[in-house]
Amino acid sequence: MIEMDEAAGIGNTDSAIINGLPVAVYICNNEGLITTYNPLAEQLWTNKPVLGKTRWLGAVKTYTLDGTSVSPGESLPAHSILTQTDTPAQQFIIERADGSRKYINHHTSLIRNRQGSVTGVINTLIDITTQKEDEGKQAMLAAIVTSSEDAIISKTLNGTITSWNHAAEKLFGYTEQEAIGKPITMLIPEERLNEEDHIINQVRNSQVVEHFETFRRHKSGRLLPLSLTISPVKDTSGNIIGASKTARDISKQKLAEQQLQHYAQNLEILNSFGKTVAENLDVQSILQKVTDATTQLTGAEYGAFFYNKLNENGEAYMLYTLSGAPKEAFEKLGMPRNTDVFKTTFRGEGIIRVDDITKDARYGKYAPHHGMPKGHLPVTSYLAVPVISKNGSVIGGLLYGHSQPAMFTQEHEQLVDGIAAQAAIALDNAKLYEEIRIINARKDEFIGLASHELKTPVTTINGYLQIIERSLAGTDRNATFITKARVQVGKLSNLISDLLDVSKIITGQLPLSYAEFDLKDLLAECTEVMQQTCTTHNITVEQPEEPIIVNADQQRIEQVIVNLLSNAIKYSPQANEVLVKLNHHNGQATISVQDFGMGIDPNDQKHIFSRFYRVEHVAAHISGLGIGLYICNEIINRHRGQLSVNSRLGHGATFSFQIPLN
Ligand code: ADP
Hints:
Blueprint: E1 2-3, H1 12-20, E2 24-29, E3 34-37, H2 39-45, E4 61-64, E5 69-70, H3 76-83, E6 87-95, E7 101-112, E8 118-127, H4 129-147, E9 151-156, E10 161-164, H5 166-172, H6 176-179, H7 193-204, E11 209-217, E12 223-234, E13 240-249, H8 251-279, H9 283-298, E14 302-307, E15 318-323, H10 327-331, H11 340-346, E16 352-354, E17 381-388, E18 394-402, H12 410-472, H13 478-506, E19 515-518, H14 519-533, E20 538-542, E21 549-552, H15 554-570, E22 577-585, E23 588-595, H16 602-605, H17 616-619, H18 628-638, E24 642-647, E25 653-660
Parallel strand pairs: 1-7, 20-22
Antiparallel strand pairs: 2-3, 2-8, 4-5, 4-6, 6-7, 7-8, 9-10, 9-13, 11-12, 12-13, 14-15, 14-18, 16-17, 17-18, 19-21, 22-23, 23-25, 24-25
Helix pairs in contact: 8-9, 8-12, 9-12, 12-13, 13-18, 14-15, 15-18
Bound molecules: adenosine-5'-diphosphate.
Keywords: Phosphoprotein
EC number: 2.7.13.3
Catalytic activity: ATP + protein L-histidine = ADP + protein N-phospho-L-histidine
C-alpha cells in the first residue's frame, strides 16, 4: 500500500520515480481511470492509453492463462479497488496494440491518502513471456522424454545416471529409483566395459556417437541388442557436464535381419542343391548333397541317409551318407535297428518329428540298449523323413538329430520333405541311368563276344571258298558263283572286323603298331584297289611329288582311307567322281576325300562320329552299321590327329584328317 497526498494523483517527483523504474507501472484512480504510466508500460502494451479516459487496463485485451477474456471491470486493479486490498501477482496474457501477445505478472498495490482512504491503485506489470515459453518448452520436452518409446537416460561425465525415463524402465527392467544415482556400467556387459571409456571420450570432445549398435544387459542378466545415440549435455555456459543417451531396442530388427539372412542362406543351399542334384546321376554324390543340404537347413547337429535295407537278421538299416559327424560315430555304436522309432520311416508311414525322442512312447522298448546305446551321439530332437520313389517304394530315410530338445520345426519338416521328393526323383533317374549303363555294357560285351565268335567260322568259310575257287578256275561255270560268294563273305568278314574294332575301342584294347611309311604309296594303293572294284565313280588323286613320310599304323590308316573312300562312293549314288587330295603343311600330313553326293546336315555332322549313328533319312535305303566313322575317328585321335567333315546338305561332303609327319 502506498500512501499519497493527492487522490490517485502523483507529483512530479513521483512521476520521475515511476518513469525510472525498471518495470512497467501504471496508476488508476479509484474510478479506474488511468492517470499515469511509465515508458516501459507503453512499450509492453505498444499502446498509449488516454490518461483520465482509459479504464483499468492499458493493453488492448487481457486473458487469463486458460484463455478466458478479462473485461476491464473484472480486472485485477478493479478487483483491488472493489475489495480494498492489494493483490498478489497474477499471471495474464495481454494482447498488445501491434497484435502480438505477452505473458505478464500483474500486481496491484492500493494508494491511500493520509486519512487512509483509497485513492487509486498502482499496477506493476512484469513481462514473463520468455520464462513462460521456456517453461512450455521444458514441459514439452519432459512430455516427449516421458512418452518416448526409446529409452532416454542422462548421466554425468563420471558415469552416474541422472535421469531415467519410462521407456528405460521398460527396456532395462530397473525403476527410476533403482537407476538414478547408480553407475551406468550396471547396464554394460563386462566384455564391453571399454566401450564406455570410448563413449565418454567422444562426449568430452563434444562429439555425438550415433547409432552405435551394441549389447547391454537387462536387470535379469539377459543381453539386449541396442542402437545407442549419445550426445553431450552442456550447461548454460556451454560446459559439458554429462551425456544423454538414447537406447533403441533393435532385437526385432536384428531378428528380421537374421531371418532374412537365414532365408537367403536357405535359398542359396536350395539353389546349389537343386543344381547339383539335377546335374548329377551318381547316387553317392546325390545322397551326400541331400544329407549335407538338409542337415544345414534344419540346423541339425547330424543328419544321415539310411537305405531301406535290413541285414539277414532284420537288424540294421544301411547307413549311406552322413553329415555333421564322422562315420565311425555310427559304426562304433551300431546302426539304427528295426525298432518302432525307425521302421515307421522305412515303411514310408510319414514324417516323424519329436521334440524329445527320449520321452516318446515308441522309444526305448528294445533290448539290449532300451533307447540310445551308451555313448551314442546324443539325440533329443529327432526328425525322420522317408524318401519315397515314384513307384511308391521307400528308397530310404533321412534322419536328423540334435542334442537339445525342440530344435526342429514345421518349416524344417516341409523343407526336408520337399528335398526328399526331389532327391527321390534324382535317385530314380540315377537308378535308371545305372540300369541303362549296365545294359549298355552288356550290349558292348555281347558285340565283342559275338564278333569274336563269328570271326573264326567266317574266316574258315572264306578259306574253303578260296580252295574251291582255285580248283574250279576256268573249268566250271559254278566258279563265278563261288567268286560271288567269296565277295559276300569278304564283306561279312569286314563287318565283323569293324564290330570287333568297336569292341576293342570300348575296352581300350585297340592295338596300334607304328612304323615309318610313305603316305603317298599307301594312298595310291588304296585308291587303286578301290577303283578296281568301283565301276560307278572315277577316283582322282592330287598329291605332291615328294614322299610324305609318317610314323603310323599303316594298316589302320589304310582302314581310315578305305572307309572314307567307300563312304564317298556309297553316299553319292548320283555322282561319278571322288576327289582325293594329299599334302603336308606345318608338320602335318592331310588327306581329304571329297564327294559330290547328298552331303550332311550340320545337325547330323555333330553325331556322325559317334557309335551306331546313322543319318535317319539315308539309313532307310543305304545299308551300314554306323560304326565306320567312329572307328576312323578313334584311329586318327590315337595318332594325335584330327578327323573332320565339311559339308552342306545336297552339296557333297569332304572328310579330311591330319596326322603328324614323322
Ligand atoms: P555307315 O556308313 O555304316 O552308316 P559311318 O560311320 O561310316 O557308318 O557313317 C555314319 C553316317 O554318316 C552314315 O550313316 C551317313 O549317314 C553319314 N555319312 C558318312 N559319310 C558320308 C558321306 N560321304 N556323305 C554323306 N553322308 C555320309
